[in-house]
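Sequence dictates fold. Below is an illustrative record:

_____
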Amino acid sequence: MEHSLDLTYHWAGFSALVVFVIAYAFVMAEEFTHLRKSKPVVLAAGLIWGMIAIAYSNTPHYEMVEHEIRHSFLEYTELAFFLLVAMTYINALEERNVFNSLKSWLIKNQFSYRQLFWITGVLAFFLSPLADNLTTALVLCAVVVAVGSSSPKFVGLACVNIVVAANAGGAFSPFGDITTLMVWQAGQLDFLQFFALVIPSVVNYIIPASIMHFFVSDHKPDVAETSVTIKYGGKTIILLGLLTIVTAVSFHNFLHLPPVFGMMTGLAYLQLYSFYIKINVRDIEEQKYDFFENVARVEWDTLFFFFGVILSVGGLGFIGYLEYVSEFMYTDLGATTANVLVGILSAIVDNIPVMFAVLTMEPAMPDSQWLLVTLTAGVGGSMLSIGSAAGVALMGQSRGMYTFFGHLKWTPIIAIGYFASVYVHILINF
C-alpha cells in the first residue's frame, strides 16, 4: 500500500496496534461478556484513523490519509450493500415460512438421529453456496434443536457437523462466505474459478462427518409433528433470489460492473414483488405485509462489525504493518505454507480480518494459491466454534447444547479434514 511515512515504530503505530488487539480481545470474548462484537471494533476503527491523521497532520502528505480512508470505506460499502441484499432476501424467505416448512417436513418424516445427522449436514453443504454459511447453519440448527431437544448429545454433534458442512459448502461459492465474496469482489478470481474447490470442500466435510457418524444414535426421536405451509409468494421469492444471483454474476462477468450493482438491481425485484404481495394478501393475512420489515431485521451487528474490521485493518495496512507480515509470510515462508497458516489463524481470530489483511497485502500469487487461501480461510474456521460466524451463532441458538468445549473435542478430526482438503486441492488444482 502506498504511504509516505513509516509509522511502524511511531507512537501512533504502536498505539493503533494496542487498540486493535484490545478491541479484538473483546470480540473473541463476546460469548462471555455479551458485548456485541461490532461495538469495540467500530471504536477501534475511529481511534486508529484518528491517530494516523494526527501523525500526518503537520506533514505535506496529510491529504493521503483522507484518500486512503475513502478507499477502505468504499471497499466496506460494496461488501455491506451486497450483504444487505442477501440478508433481506433471507429475511423475506423466513417471513414467508420457507425455512419453517423445511423444518416441518424433516420432523414429519420421522427420520432417525443418524439420518437427520446426514440430511442436515448434506443440506448445509449444498444450501450454503446459495444462502451463505451463517444463514444455512442457523436454519438447520433450528431443525436439530426442535427434533433433538431430548438428546443434548445429538444436538451438540449435529451442530458441529452443520458448522463444518456449511463452511465447506460456502468455500466454493462467492455467495457462500464473506471471505469468498471479498476475494470475488476484489477481482482476484472469476466466478467460475471458485468451483475448482468443490472436491476439496467435499473432502473437508466428508472425513469428519464419516467419523462422527459412528457416535450418533440410530434411534428415532419422539417429537410432535407440526404442519407449516409456505405463505403466499414464498416460492416466487426463491426464484427471484436465484435471479438476483444471476444478475450479480452477469453484471460482473459481462458488463464489468461491481457485483453489488447486480445485487441492488435484484433488491428492486424483491421490492416490486413485495408490493404485489402486499396488495394480494390484504384480505388473506392478518398481519400487514411490509417489505421494509425484512430490511429492518438485517444483522446490523454483523454489518457494523465488518465496518470496524475493514477500516481497522486498512489503517494498520496504511501504517505499514501488513508489509512486514506479507514479507515474512509470503516471501520467507512461501505462499503455500502462508496460506495454510491463514486457515489455522482464521480458526483463532476469525476469517474476515485475516482474509482482508491478505487482500490488502496483495501478495503476487497464481490463481491456484488464491484458491488455496480462499479454501483455507473458509474451512479453517471450522476447527474451533469461535472460528466462524456459523459456529458463534449456533452457540447462541442451541441453548447450551453446542458449546466451545463440545466442539473442541472434535477439533483433531476436523483438522484431519482440513489438511486432507488442502492436500487434495494441491493434487488437483496446482
